[in-house]
Known about the structure:
Blueprint: H1 3-7, H2 10-22, H3 25-32, H4 36-50, E1 55-58, E2 61-64, H5 66-86, E3 99-104, H6 106-111, H7 113-123, E4 128-133, H8 139-145, E5 150-153, E6 155-157, E7 162-170, E8 172-177, H9 187-190, E9 194-198, E10 210-213, E11 216-219, H10 225-231, E12 240-245, H11 251-254, E13 260-265, H12 266-275, E14 278-281, E15 290-297, H13 304-316
Parallel strand pairs: 3-4, 3-5, 9-12, 9-13
Antiparallel strand pairs: 1-2, 5-15, 6-11, 7-15, 8-13, 8-14, 10-11
Amino acid sequence: MSTLINRLDLNLLRVFDAIMEERSVLRASQRVCLSQSAVSHALGRLREVIGDELFVRTTTGMQPTARALRMAPRIREAWKSLEIAVELPKFDPRSSTKRFTVAVSDFVTMVVVPDLLGLLNREATLVDLALQSDNSFDLTEQLDLGHVDVAVGTFSEIPDRFRASPLFSSDDVLVAHRSRRLGRLSHDKLATLSIATVSVYGGHGGTDGFLSAHGLSRRSEMFDRMAMERAFRGSARKPRLAVSLPHFLALPSLLEERELTAIVPRPLASLLARMYPLSVHELPYKAAVMDVSVLWSERNLGDAAQDWLRGMLMRATESLRPIPVDTESPALSSSMTSLPRIAVGV
Length: 346
């Protein structure tokens, strides 16, 4: 860097640009919100550093010298570049062609993404969405590198460099083929069933149903095993967890086998019951209500595009956040084939 630049105060260039634009010390002072004497003093300092008069006072105003005329366009361009560099970037979803990458499970894909795509189709028709499986063990690295914009899932611990906001909550229910006519479930009746469950990330996880890697704990068992074990502690007969799956996608076809049932998150059960001949049943014990959250790197704080994406996810999950309802209401009879898409008592 030249000696001249080292001696130069950038505020002097701001004053130079204002005088060049206004051709008046008075009007320039008003433009940069300084006193007239302060602008005159700044011009004097700039003349000393540059070694040129820069402006000559005439009856028609401050006229630039040849040196000032050569400097002016480059200083104007540099000043605009500085303003762009320090200002928060703007994001216009109506014209943006940005591609967002979101790490999700198949559960989130099924219950959230359709509404998210609907919003994009109406409000950001040129924005593209890339969905990536969230079961990668290097999810934190993908977020750190910016390869993934956000992840959506259930997290119990997150590193300090990340932030998370809850989108909706969910507990467990049981789904079965509609022909089963199970009615209201009791502990004894549940103990007679063959049940399918889902365990992601290769089925590895701690006793609390969460997998920890690189400081991030993610839900690995997609049902509350601990609540079930507490409910049947000391019982002679316990529910048979007959099938463990790595994802939810196969459940509808597997439940065509009338002897099999499944424990799934409530929003997914509601969706499946609308699409397939399935009934949804309240469990005879209280399962934990789990938050599904959006996770992102703190380096994206203040990024307009990232803020917009998280806002869209909040809007896409509005229908999963209804007012709590009474689980004892007849309207929630176990014989119903569709239920609210969110956990009761959120």
